[in-house]
Amino acid sequence: MSAVAARLLATVPLLVRRALFAAAAVAVLTLSLTPVAHLPSQVFDLWDKAQHAGGFAVLAALGFWAWSWHTVRVWLGLLAYGAFIEVAQSATGWRYGDALDWLADAAGVGLGWALWVSVQRIWKTG
After folding, report:
1. If you count Cβ atoms within 10 Å of the first and of the last residue's Cβ in the chain, which end, N or C, has fewer?
2. What is the DSSP string of 51-92?
3. 113 near 64, Cβ under 8 Å?
4. Domain residue extents for the chain
5. CB crowding 33-47: b at 16 or more within 10 Å, else e
6. Is the CA virtual torsion 56, 76, 24, 58 positive or negative?
7. What is the pLDDT of residue 74?
8. Rounded distance between C-alpha atoms, residue 114 and residue 15, angstroms
9. Which helix (DSSP H) or strand (DSSP E) does residue 17 occupy?
10. 81, 63 in Cβ contact below 8 A?
11. Do residues 82 and 51 lie in contact, with contact meaning Cβ atoms separated by under 8 Å?
């Protein structure tokens, strides 16, 4: 990411950042609880754990961007959200919860955090 792009990200209003995070959280929950038969087939051609990690990497990057001064809360909140989704999937009858999916979610949070740290360094040095 260029320093110019990083500076542009810094100018996005906080309300917009939080709205983007909320929209992504709703999208992840919706996709996680929708019966597999109702989703486009290409969504599930990818490796399941990579989908979890990717979704939570996006959520984490958006979350750290929107609440940069609460990194521990973002970490804990997203880990709890991932656990909630796994429990909710178990309750649906058409999906099932999986502890390995939660671990993939946690890995995604780590990736999102690493991305956020990289962007912050660019802001400071750019």
Report:
1. N
2. HHHHHHHHHHHHHHHHTTT-HHHHHHHHHHHHHHHHHHHHHH
3. yes
4. 3-125
5. eeeeeeeeeeeeeee
6. negative
7. 97
8. 23
9. helix 14-33
10. no
11. no
Under 8 Å CB-to-CB from 70, ≥6 apart: which residues?
none
**pLDDT, position 1:** 57
pLDDT at position 28 is 95
The residue type of 51 is Q
For residue 42 the two structure tokens come to 């290409």
Write down the pTM of the prediction: 0.85
38-88 pLDDT, tens digit per residue, is 666 654 445 788 989 999 999 999 999 999 899 999 999 999 999 999 999
**Tokens of residue 76, six digits:** 């804990």
Tokens of 83: 């656990």
> Is residue 90 within 8 Å of 100, Cβ to Cβ?
no
**CA distances to 25, 87, 93, 120 from 18, in Å:** 10, 25, 32, 18
Number of residues written out for the chain? 126
Q: Which two tokens stand for residue 126?
A: 């750019």
